[in-house]
Amino acid sequence: MASTSPRPASLSTPLLSGSIAPARAANGHANSHSHRHHHDDSDAAASVCDDGGGDPFAFLSEDRPPRDRGVSPADPFRNATPAWGGGVYAWARTLLLLPVAALRLAMFGLAIAIGYAATWVALRGWADVQERPREGAGPMPAWRRRLMWITRISARCILFSFGYHWIRKKGRPAPRELAPIVVSNHISYIEPIFFFYELFPTIVSSESHDALPFVGTIIRAMQVIYVDRFSPASRKAAVNEIKRKAACNSFPRVLLFPEGTTTNGRFLISFQHGAFIPGYPVQPVVVRYPHVHFDQSWGNISLLKLMFKMFTQFHNFMEVEYLPVVYPPEIKQENALHFAENANCSNYVVQMAWVKDMYGVNTAEAMELLENFLAMNPDSDGHVKAQEFWAHFGLDCSPLCKKIFHYFNSGITDSITFRQFLVGCAHLRKQPLFQGACETAFEKCRDPETSDISRGQLADVLRLSMLLPSDDGMLRLFKTFDVDGDEKISRDDFLTCLGRFPFLIAFFAAPINGEVYIEIV
């Protein structure tokens, strides 16, 4: 049995929470708080693992995460701009810019004509692309690539005519030798034009695009990889071509839009996994179109109407962020395949704009959380049950583990979705006391001589929270914290692990609160 030093039953201590109790009263929650947490002095020794309710993260903040909003009624393909209206300002701007729009249209047509002519000359006499790019064709000769710079500059002029006078870029494209595959979100027809100018990559495209006037000739110069989505043989051939061209530095980068269609940019939808099967390093790119009055996404809006609206804007904003290169190990490829083929993707849809505004979570962080969630073996509906959730960390469903799990779904169901996992983790990370609690936990648990945490010391801490994992489970949890795999948990290991899995901070509530457990033999 164990005894503790006297303390309030709530984990909200002056060390971590300051004036949390008055804040509750000020917010009108004093009654419910008293009903749930009021104890007299005889209850002071209650364990944090008591199964009678309570918030395992009360020592961070009194706030609860917002309830999962379920399947959003919003349409990820809806363009939010009114059809032809938009108020007095929109009409006034349109009328004022009609002469400018005419000039822009002329510039657009001239740039198309020059680019097409240069491309026609660059392809003249090249047998590999006279009809259409054939499988196994070699890379474009150097002199033809140099001639294509005329077309690339024409593409930049096209962007200028659409109102993209300057484009804000963050980060840089990785060298082709380092990341032969580039993946990007797909919001409008503008991204292919931008990447044509910026990278001149090889793209994967529907066979129907080859017959489009002007466009078919230009994408042929990019040594396009054609695919018929409805033909398994065609998809397999496309993957083989991606592998072949990614493996040879004489070819340009391979650019893929894994969502397979355009969205309004406020949702993350399911990925086609062709970019990830070859196993080469991938550089993700995020494209954004900040706006106030005009949504530039190519969703439920005709191409001509979208072009007209672009021509009648003073300036259209575009941001391109090159993210760090991802080196997918084999296990991640298997998870990607499992996810893409077997998951009910509606439970993975996340309104990224809301998550970013509310919690500051960027796309790269969301993808890391998705990777962690997939490692927990979600079922075909995209749900993870408590047993599978904690088995990932080598733990059983102890009372404290159940409380932590219920934090994500308010105890309503026995499973959680990716949306709930993302929102819960993001909410914990955002708490003003979270980082300080992580630092305090490490200082209380580390060995004074080595300034590290050993496996035995981690086991001692878990005993304070009434967690008694098996030897194999203890080893698995220790490896989760031992990020660099050097058989000890350094400060950087500890903080990195809690950054990835912030809910694990609840295991360290006892040392943070200064509790001392004495085992009576």
Automatic annotation (TrEMBL):
GO cellular component term of the entry, any: membrane
Pathway(s) per entry: Lipid metabolism; phospholipid metabolism
One Gene Ontology term from the biological process aspect of the record: phospholipid biosynthetic process
Boundaries of every EF-hand domain copy: 469-504
Annotated SMART domains: PlsC
Bilayer-crossing regions: 105-126, 147-167
Gene3D superfamilies: EF-hand
Localization: Membrane
Stretch list, region Disordered: 22-77
Keyword Lipid biosynthesis assigned: yes
Bias kind Basic and acidic residues: ranges: 61-70
Keyword field: Acyltransferase, Lipid biosynthesis, Lipid metabolism, Membrane, Phospholipid biosynthesis, Phospholipid metabolism, Transferase, Transmembrane, Transmembrane helix
One Gene Ontology MF term: lysophosphatidylethanolamine acyltransferase activity
Domain of life: Eukaryota
Family: Belongs to the 1-acyl-sn-glycerol-3-phosphate acyltransferase family.
The protein, known as: EF-hand domain-containing protein
Native species: Panicum virgatum (Blackwell switchgrass)
